[in-house]
TrEMBL record:
It is an enzyme of class 7 (translocase). Its EC number is 7.1.1.2. It catalyses: a ubiquinone + NADH + 5 H(+)(in) = a ubiquinol + NAD(+) + 4 H(+)(out). Residues 98-378 form the NADH:quinone oxidoreductase/Mrp antiporter transmembrane domain. The chain crosses the membrane at residues 6-28, 40-66, 78-97, 104-123, 143-164, 171-189, 209-227, 234-253, 296-313, 325-350, 419-440, 452-474, 486-505, 550-570. It is found in: Mitochondrion inner membrane. GO terms for molecular function: NADH dehydrogenase (ubiquinone) activity; NADH dehydrogenase activity. PANTHER family: NADH-UBIQUINONE OXIDOREDUCTASE CHAIN 5 (PTHR42829:SF2). It comes from Orecta lycidas. The keyword Transport applies. This is NADH-ubiquinone oxidoreductase chain 5. It is a multi-pass membrane protein.
């Protein structure tokens, strides 16, 4: 299966080169059913954007499936797992190739359903809770897409791609745009729907590598890129800018307080999604797409490296137990370091080309100081948690076992990681040459141009100081425990979305059931009638315990009563 996916990825790349050179767009319509004047049509849109994104999705999924052969080798149901991953990829491809809102819903809902099945793959209470949180959060987006479908009935066709340009000032399109933005916020986990993304870490690590790089969480960003002609005119896009920046900032802070290896990487994904959403809301959809693709490569690689480390560490995910692994796992640490540097935007790696360009365009734009500060502080926080993670994993002492055997010889995992390592090195440069018809060259004052380097250096130094395990550690001074409960829990968002939306309502229902259905209602209806009838029947049962004696006794009483009445009548 991985070879097929890799072949299709290569073919998609060849077609994309041809399409981008000739500026081609091909629109397929396949009529499924035609009855009287009603025709059900399946539409496919092939342009450079859909082909390029499909190439990245297929390449990452082929590498992840190959990686799973080793990572999931001890599983009894490995075939079922591979089938679920393939369904997941097909749902994403359907969403990518769809110019029609109905087929987008099929892919969108397919992603939500299969992601639930994958999150609950390890069957325990934590996985079930995480799966329900993921499914219900995504369900909000599904409902909004259904509402878009019903609003689009007025246009006579669901092929939104045809009339986005000349219908964008229509009043109905205003509501459609708001619903599309909100649906994308649920799928791409923006505030206030952020809590499901770290919870989805209950899934196996290969699934996390696929979900957090190129499939589930990127669906919302891709949908907004397709609808970008419509949403730029809507005032609601300013709210998306604010929410994207807050998500970026919140995830960056929370990652610094987190000790779960996979959750730190998940929160870095959340931070990058906030970056994509906020730059998209400023009108730079091509930059958002560029960062989406470069981010996919090094984020998948990060998760695969974390999977190897978790395997070697006896399935421990707490970074406080890890340390000194660079000596024993050199290949894995090479991949981890390069992917982390790409995430931070170190020059000439994949993340540098997109991230640096985004920050320069922010500096160049006419937005306020708050936007500027959020972007640069979040960039510094990325460096902060990355250096902290590397210090915990590679520099500090191993705290797991006294006797250990760490090795780096799982060649299936190593080979799959090296494919993504190569792409993390070159994807930024070759995408910047292909996507943009002319090179972006942003002229800025020296200090503004160097601002990225300033905040990165400050963030790196703070990350080093915080993760230093000596007695003079800054950790004790910077991270107060009263503050950490607020910051580590993503501003209490998991509590609000779990307890606020589920627990309190379910608890209210339980109390109503106990007091009314099983309390007053029972006493005054079924249970009360049963109680009265039971008392009466037990009372009458006393008279029937010894029938003859009671009969004779009653006969004597009856005769005495008659005699008494006769006596009264004679007198």
């Amino acid at each position: 299966m991985c070879l097929y996916f890799f072949f299709f990825s290569f073919m998609s790349f060849i077609f994309m080169i041809y399409f981008i050179m000739n500026n081609l767009v091909i629109f397929f319509e396949w009529e499924l059913i035609s009855l009287n004047s009603v025709s059900v049509v399946m539409s496919i849109l092939l342009d450079w954007m859909s082909l390029l994104f499909m190439m990245f999705v297929l390449m990452i999924s082929s590498v992840v499936i190959y990686y799973s052969k080793s990572y999931m080798s001890s599983e009894l149901n490995l075939f079922r797992f591979i089938i679920l991953v393939v369904l997941f990829v097909f749902s994403m491809i359907l969403l990518i190739l769809s110019p029609n809102i109905i087929s987008i819903l099929l892919g969108w809902d397919g992603l939500g359903l299969v992601s639930y099945c994958l999150v609950i793959y390890y069957q325990n209470n934590k996985s079930y809770n995480a799966g329900m949180l993921t499914a219900l959060s995504n369900r909000i987006g599904d409902v909004l897409i259904l509402m878009v479908i019903s609003w689009m009935l007025n246009y006579g066709s669901w092929n939104y791609i045809f009339y986005l340009d000349f219908m964008k000032n229509d009043f109905i399109m205003f509501f459609i745009g708001i619903m599309i933005i909100m649906a994308s916020m649920t799928k791409s986990a923006q505030i206030p729907f952020s809590s499901w993304l770290p919870a989805a870490m209950a899934a196996p690590t290969p699934v996390s590598a696929l979900v957090h790089s190129s499939t589930l969480v990127t669906a919302g960003v891709y949908l907004l890129i397709r609808f970008n002609l419509l949403i730029t005119k809507i005032f609601f896009i300013k709210i998306l800018l604010l929410m994207g920046m807050l998500t970026m900032f919140m995830a960056g802070i929370s990652a610094n307080y987190e000790y779960d290896l996979k959750k730190i990487i998940a929160l870095s994904t959340l931070s990058q999604l906030g970056l994509m959403m906020s730059i998209l809301s400023m009108g730079f959809s091509d930059l958002a797409f560029f960062h989406l693709l470069t981010h996919a490569m090094f984020k998948a690689l990060l998760f695969m490296c974390s999977g190897v480390i978790i395997h070697m560490m006896n399935n421990t995910q707490d970074i406080r137990y890890m340390g000194g692994i660079s000596i024993y796992l050199p290949m894995t640490c090479l991949c981890l370091n390069i992917s982390n540097m790409a995430l931070c935007g170190i020059p000439f790696l994949a993340g540098f080309y997109s991230k640096d360009l985004i920050l320069e365009m922010v500096s160049f734009s006419s937005l306020n100081m708050m936007v500027f500060m959020f972007y640069y502080i979040s960039t510094g926080l990325t460096m902060f948690y990355t250096i902290r993670l590397l210090m915990y994993l590679m520099v500090n002492d191993l705290n797991l076992l006294s006797i250990y055997n760490l090795y780096d010889e799982d060649y299936i995992m190593i080979k799959s990681m090296f494919v993504l390592l190569f792409m993390s090195l070159i994807s930024g440069s070759f995408l910047s040459w292909m996507i943009f018809y002319y090179p972006y060259l942003v002229y800025l004052p020296f200090n503004l141009k160097m601002m990225v380097i300033y905040v990165s250096v400050i963030g790196g130094v703070l990350g080093f100081l915080v993760s230093n395990m000596s007695i003079y550690s800054v950790n004790k001074f910077i991270f107060s425990y009263n503050l950490s409960s607020f910051l580590c829990l993503m501003w209490f968002m998991p509590s609000l979305s779990t307890y606020g939306l589920n627990y309190y309502f379910l608890n209210l229902g339980q109390n109503l059931l106990k007091i009314i259905d099983m309390g007053w209602s029972e006493m005054y209806t079924g249970q009360g009638i049963l109680y009265i009838l039971k008392n009466y029947s037990s009372f009458y049962n006393i008279f029937q315990m010894n029938n003859l004696k009671i009969y004779l006794f009653s006969f004597i009483i009856w005769m005495m009563f008659i005699m008494y009445m006769l006596f009264l009548s004679i007198i």
